[in-house]
Amino acid sequence: MGTQTQKPATKFGTHNNHMRTRIKEIQHGLALIALVPLFVIGSGEMLSGLRIGTWRIFNVLDFLIMAPFWMFTLLRLHGPITKNSKIWQRWISLLLITSFLYGHAVHLTADTIHTYMTHSNDYTALVPDDFHKLIDFLDEDVGHWMQFIPLFLLLGSWISFNDVNLCDRQLFAFPFASNWFTFSMGIIMGMSVSFSTIEGGCVFLGILGAAFLSLATCLKALTHREKNLKWRDDLLIQFGSGFIFGTFIGLYSYWFFVGDLLLQPSVIFNLKSILQLEYFFNLKNRFQLEI
Questions:
Q1: Angle at CA 79, nearest 5°, toward 219 and 73?
Q2: Residue 234: strand pairing partners
Q3: Whole-angstrom distance, CA of residue 242 vs CA of residue 208
Q4: Which stretches does DSSP call E strand in 11-69?
Q5: Contact 238, 182 (CB under 8 A)
Q6: CA 127 → CA 34, 120, 135, 238, distances in Å?
Q7: Burial of 123: CB neighbours in 10 Å, binned 0-12, 13-18, 19+
């Protein structure tokens, strides 16, 4: 009888450990995709004037750090997030991850060639116009579309198809278990993506993507409500809500302080402009500050 009474407790404890591990993996992965691109890409854009040989420092960081980072981190997140999903939902997640990585590769290649032609060397006059237009199309249009669209769809599918609930807070009392941590990571990634859409000249994709995620998050919250579940305890809803908030805050704050959503952040916040205080004086003139 003693052995029989211990079996359910053992199974329950094992289940809790698996859930604890799964949630830790998801929270750590979401934190990585929020923080690492912000620091690496932000540093690369600020140092965009520097070069290693004929390569811009941004392209070097994108090639050596961000390309493998996106592949390993997204695939690592795919496992625990889609653990309880249906097979076709897992395949959708893998397809969107593959599309995002493909778009990143197209953009990296085209941007490197474009930089080599126009910035590292003055080959503009030697390159045929149709070839230059093709590279520009792959760099500024196809590369950005195939990154941002799959990214928004991937986040939307993760939110819509998967449940990652903190059912009992006592079971998940570890440092990163709070709602605010996951929500804040969503805000950081949303703001980072909003600045990336401005840099890529496709602000409309950022607005449409945030609207799509708003719809997916609201529908998921309603589903939780119908099941008498606390939607606030779903990690993906927390992250999605923060991402939406961060995207709109990023776009609005950039428009408020800069005044032009078509002006690339790398033009304003590069190292040369910062050292010369160009943005400071532009901000002073914009708001007519007496300093």
A1: 95
A2: 165
A3: 16
A4: 51-52, 55-56
A5: yes
A6: 38, 14, 11, 49
A7: exposed
Q: What span, in angstroms and rounded, lies between the C-alpha atoms of 200 and 136?
A: 12
Nearest CA-CA partner of 149 in 204, 194, 107, 209: 209
- For residue 51, the cross-strand partners are 56
The amino acid sitting at 136 is D
CA neighbor of 193 nearest in space, from 259, 148, 253? 148
Nearest to 76 by CA among 117, 25, 122: 25
Distance of alpha carbon 183 from alpha carbon 175, whole angstroms = 14
Residues 51 and 206 sit within 8 Å (Cβ to Cβ)? no
Nearest to 241 by CA among 180, 160, 161, 186: 186
Determine the Cα–Cα distance for residues 24 and 22; give it in Å rounded to an integer: 5
**Span 123-156, pLDDT tens digits:** 777 778 888 888 888 888 899 999 999 999 999 9
Burial 240-277 (b: 16+ CB within 10 A, else e): bbbbbbbbbebbeebeeebeebeebbbebbbeebeeee
Secondary element (H or E) of residue 180: helix 179-199
CB 56 within 8 A of CB 48: yes
* Centroid of chain to Cα 34: 6
Type of residue found at 167: C
Residue closest to 203 by CA, chosen among 137, 153, 142, 248? 248
Radius of gyration of the chain (CA): 22
Distance CA 230, CA 248 (A): 25
- Alpha carbon distances (Å) from 104 to 122, 209, 235: 26, 17, 27
What is the chain's length? Answer: 291
pTM: 0.83
Write out pLDDT tens, residues 223-282.
Answer: 877 767 666 778 888 899 999 999 999 999 999 888 888 888 777 766 555 544 455 445
Helix (H/G/I), strand (E/B), else coil: 165: strand
